Amino acid sequence: VSRQLKEEIRRGFARLEDPLAGLLAMLESSSDWKGKGHSLGYCITTELQLWIKAHPAVPQSGTQLKKLQARVLGMLSQCPANLLDPLISIYQLHTADRNYLLEHVSHLYLQGNYKEAAILSIKLKLQPDQDVEKMCTPLLLQDKANLMEDYVAEYPELQKKLLQILDTWCDPSFNIREVTRPYQGLSRYKPEKFNRRVLSKLVFRLLERFNIDPALCPNVVNQRHLRTLNYLFYKRFVEKTMTEENWADHIQSTVGENRCLQGHLVQSLLRHCDMRGAARWARHCRVPPEMLPQAVAEELQKLHTQDRVEEVTKADNYEASKKKDYYQLPIPRENIHFLQTWEETLQCWEKVLQPGQVVGVDMEWKPSFGMVGKPRVALLQLALKDEVFLLDVPRLLEQAEAEGEKDKLPHFIQMLYSDAAITKLGYGMSGDLSSLAATCSALKGTEKQMQGVVDLLAVDKQVDGLSPDQSHEERRVRQPEKGLSLLVQHVLGKPLDKTEQLSNWEKRPLREEQILYAASDAYCLLEIYERLCKDPESFGLGSDLTESLVGKQSKKPRAKKQLNKQEAPSPSGQECQGPRTEPSQPPAPISPQEFSVVCDNMLHGLGRYLRCLGVDVRLLDNEDDHRKAAEIAREEGRVILTSGLPYQTLRSQVGEGRCFSVNCSEKAKEQALQVLKHFNVQVSPSDIFSRCQ
């Protein structure tokens, strides 16, 4: 706004007998002020606000002010957001009769102006005198969760009340339609945003934002624990990628003494084990005998200590047989140092912080399986050519704080990452550093100061999957490995053994298997880097590998391990198998509009990608049984897209060629291309984004 206009506005106010009434008359008769941006009406209003501060005698009181307040209240629900605060300030609406303000907001609400009623309530701080459920429900149904969060942001009691309401709605026995029924004629009504899965995610987000104890929301916590239990059973008994000790740690910490979860554990044990196995695990997890079926309780009485000895022996034999199939550390065990004191750690620093040093860096944290909060680093691994240091991060932070030097560890880590003379190797460094920042707030800016880093995740995207030791025939069989393990297999010939990845890394002492896994994860980075630098052309990389990568990162680094350690994915999504049905001749070409599918619940990414291309897609919810896909396919004539084990079950429930198994180790784009090619779907530019996203 020009200085000349400002001066003219102020002269105009000085000439007016009643500037407040004058502004209101102007706004009521003008349409300009209702537009977005800085209109003339906005400029005049903000100038009056400043002018009043310079002329304290101007504000009115008594009957005249009340009349003006009544007029301005009627205007607030229509005015742009940037005018709300100036008008509330000029007309002193905070001093108006509270019951009158509440009545006005209630009138807005009854007219169906829920958003406007909520915004005005926030501005006038009316929330403590309103019904939080009544005010927030229509906001959720209109997909305005952010406004709902703002509504309770300054009121801890309302936050707790809202979370308890949302948790009640997540109870499996609660009929959500009772909540939505009164609002079915609502404009911008989005009932698909109002289901237990979406509400559960919202509850966890609010618990974290407002720092509230999750115990306040037993329904969503229990459901998350149930999903975790199902995931752990899948990892142990179907995928067979979790050791017995590792699995037992997580089962015990998940179930605890919760009767509901203990009951679910018993049922799962009966599905996956024989009676003897179910009884043994029930005893191990301290399930009360009265909760066990009679046959299991009888088996429990027959158990002897010898069972455990036999099982451990079997496990040891199994571990020995696996060694030849996986990457093995080339350094002796005594060169792996687990550091829990500062005296030991200072000696480690002296070796690591040497100019010209190359350091493999990795971190481990306890998987939270989607519970509240970001993961906190429990172990920091630093690998040098001849030895590996495993730093017990919680213990070292605790000791440093007790000595009044809480920035000791962050200082070392910042020195390491900011020193261009030391080459740091990682895989998905962005994810590691965000976990470090959550563990220690002093490390929040570390990523911006990094120098001399090589993120092998960026290299992984460029590496040709054929290792020099593999033949082209071997390459055609896609490996079930992924991430760093797949890169290790491509470059060094054998994959990493990832059975300890989902360990409880906070439990002390660490098991020997955990120590070896943690050391291998960091040390393999040194070997990969050395091999790629020696022979980059064999892996499809440029000859100037060292020069081009040191100090650079991938533009969008993917958070390493966040999927595995944070969200428990649908169990079936872990089984990676290619298509089983090859048609005898290619089908006739069809457009995306003619192609309708139902995606199993481990393929949401594929479903969303296909929808972007114009395909008619239905997605199963995470809670849905895989068999629901067959029901939908039969009723609506859709093709089932699934992966892994459910394929065998589902293909028998629909016609030939109506069920397709995709490779779940590939990204959504590659999966979509596979589906389009198989069904001969021809996508044109006009199909893209032709459906509502």
TrEMBL record:
UniProt keyword Nuclease present: yes
Molecular function terms, GO-annotated: 3'-5' exonuclease activity; nucleic acid binding
Compositionally biased residues, Basic residues: 553-563
Residue ranges constituting the 3'-5' exonuclease domain according to the UniProt record: 336-537
Pfam families named in the record: DNA_pol_A_exo1 (PF01612), Mut7-C (PF01927)
Ranges annotated as biased composition (Polar residues): 565-575
Start and end residues of each stretch annotated as Disordered: 548-592
CDD domains: mut-7_like_exo
Keyword Lipid biosynthesis: no
GO biological process, one term: nucleobase-containing compound metabolic process
Key words, A-Z: Exonuclease, Hydrolase, Nuclease
InterPro entries: 3'-5'_exonuclease_dom (IPR002562), Exonuclease_MUT-7-like (IPR052408), Mut-7_DEDDy_dom (IPR037432), Mut7-C_RNAse_dom (IPR002782), RNaseH-like_sf (IPR012337), RNaseH_sf (IPR036397)
Origin superkingdom: Eukaryota
Protein name per Swiss-Prot or TrEMBL: MUT7 Exonuclease
